[in-house]
Amino acid sequence: MPIHRSVKTLISKAGWHAYNTYRKGVHYHFKLSRVAVLLEAPRETIEAYQAERLEELLRHAYQTTPYYRELLKTETPNIAEIPPLEKKHIREQLDALCSTAFTEAQRIENATGGSTGTPLTFYQDRNYWNQRNLSVYYFDRWAGWNFGQPQLVIWGAPVDLENDGHWKHRLGNFWRNQQWLNGFHLTDTAMLEIFEQMEEAPPQTILAYPSSLYQFATFLSENGLIPQWNLKGIIASAEMLHPHYRALAEIVFKAKVYNRYGGREVGLIGMECAEGRMHINCRDIYLEIDSPDPYSEPGEILITQLNNYAMPFIRYRIGDIGMLSDEVCPCGNSLPILAELLGRTTATFRTRMGTLIHGGYFTRQFYGVKGVNQFQIIQETLKHCVLKVVVNRQWTEATRRSLVQCIQKALGEEVVVTVKFVEDIPLAASGKREYTISKVGTPATD
Questions:
Q1: I need a labelling partner for 369 at 20 to 30 A (CA). Which of 72, 177, 235, 421 fits?
Q2: Phi, psi at residue 179, to the nearest 5°?
């Protein structure tokens, strides 16, 4: 017999209490309240906290990490003068980047999903995870989440799903009060089944990949299935949240979508508030924009993780492009704002003049195009793009000309666009959908 909703919530709250007490100690509620005090403090308090943590991290990196001992030369460097940490450095010098203050047993191995190629392996420590989770708890509450409340999770990271179906995974879902829908295998049968389950036991929040959320919302919309869940909010994370993803999800689920930005390497970077501004998680990370003027000119995002002492990430080039804002947010929070998040550098196109074109520009060209089932645009060079399409009977020559012209309008009329008709466009190795791929690096004048 199914457990009553209120009883399940009480069991889940007890489970969360036991988990946090085991991981963070009996005073974790006090620790969480201190997180809130800091993240809601005046800007000067936040900046002073970051400066202190940066100084401690740099000293630790210099004293205990071979890589940084050689690179920094001093334990009090100017952070702006430190060369960025690249993914290739991690692959080539993994051992040298690990702190000698931690034994191998104290390191926790983690890895990216490999959305841009080979998965990246790295190490973190238990304190990093404790601090990361406290920050996630705080920011997820902006979207209405709370301990014990039912949540639908539409996720697909291999590292999260490798034990999908195992009793430990099912037990974890039970005490967390989560229902999971595998974002890598969104079949009609699976989506209908989870919809019917949620009708019987509605979630209060949804946590999802944006593309999986969009696919689920599309399925419900096309089949006339109207959720009656009274959601408090939807958390979209791990991928770019395109405008049409957000728009359809908010219509179908009748709830606000909150964009959450982060990465496995560094944790939670930012979270959208109720006013739609993305605030930077200054408690855990120090964020820079590699640009002459980060408030007017987009640049690559550099992240310094303030809590991972087992393997310090200092000025890590995470692979995304963004821009800062100096506005005062109407929500009243003083955390700085990430005004533009243009997505992966590999999904941001470049023109011969050096202009950056957000991949979202190209995906918008496919809104309402009925002749296309799937698409992918690949910028091979500054002069050549490939448009892969899976078409249906409504495809016409006029459709082809229109899409080619839209691409040339953004990248230049001289750009050659090759249209390739394919049977299917497979997911990337990470399981995520890649609509735009740029193979062009630093702008050139070839």
A1: 235
A2: -115, 130
Q: Is 37 exposed, middle or buried (0-12, 13-18, 19+ CB in 10 A)?
A: exposed
Counted residue by residue, the chain has a size of 446
Bin 254: left if φ > 0, else alpha if -120 < ψ < 50, else beta.
Answer: left
Strands 349-350, 384-391: pairing is unpaired
Q: Which residue has the tokens 């967390």?
A: 176
Give the domains, in start order, of the chain with CATH numbers.
Answer: 5-345 (3.40.50.12780), 348-438 (3.30.300.30)
Q: How far is Cα 319 from Cα 290, in angstroms, rounded to an integer?
A: 11
Instruction: Specify burial of residue 28 (Cβ count, 10 A radius: 0-12, 13-18, 19+).
Output: buried
pLDDT confidence of residue 65: 97
Q: Are 296 and 64 in contact (CB under 8 A)?
A: no
pLDDT higher at 356 or 223 = 223
DSSP assignment, residue 73?
Answer: S
Distance of CA 251 to the CA centre of its chain: 22
Q: How far apart are CA 24 and CA 27, in angstroms?
A: 7
- Quick check: 225 and 133 in contact, CB under 8 A? no
CA nearest neighbour of 271 among 145, 144, 140? 140
Q: What is the DSSP letter of 438?
A: E
User: CB neighbours of 201 closer than 8 A, spacing ≥ 6?
Assistant: 2, 5, 8, 150, 179
Instruction: 342-345: list long-range contacts, CB under 8 Å, 24+ apart.
Output: 342/298, 343/240, 344/115, 344/116, 344/240, 344/319, 344/320, 345/300, 345/319, 345/320, 345/321, 345/438
106 alpha carbon, distance to own chain's centre: 26
**For the segment 292-309, what is each residue's pLDDT rounded down to a tens digit?**
999 998 888 999 999 999
CA–CA separation, 428 vs 419, rounded Å?
20
- Token digits of residue 230: 């009274």
pLDDT tens by residue, 122-139: 999 999 999 999 999 999
Question: For residue 13, what are its two tokens?
Answer: 């709250």
- Separation between Cα atoms, residue 54 and residue 284, nearest integer Å: 10
DSSP string, 149-211: --EEEEE--HHHHTTTTSHHHHHHHHHHTEEEEETT---HHHHHHHHHHHHHS--SEEEE-HH
pLDDT digits (tens, 9 = 90+) for 146-174: 999 999 999 875 455 555 556 677 788 88
